[in-house]
Amino acid sequence: MSKRRIRKMKEAILLVKDLSVSFHMYDGGLEQYDLKVISNLTLDVRPGEIVAIAGSSGSGKSLFAHAVMGLLPENAVMTGKVFYKGKVLSQKDKEALRGTEMALVPQSVSYLDPLMTIGAQVRGTKPNRQIIKAQKEIFKRLHLKEETEKLYPFQLSGGMARRVLVATAVLSGAQLIIADEPTPGLDLEMALEALQVFRELADAGKAVVLITHDIDLAFHIADRISVFYAGTTVETAKAADFLKGKETLRHPYSKALWEALPQNGFKPIPGFQPYAKYLPKGCLFSPRCPLKTKECENEIPMTEVRGGYVRCIHAD
Question: Is 9 a residue whose pLDDT tops 60?
Answer without folding.
Answer: no
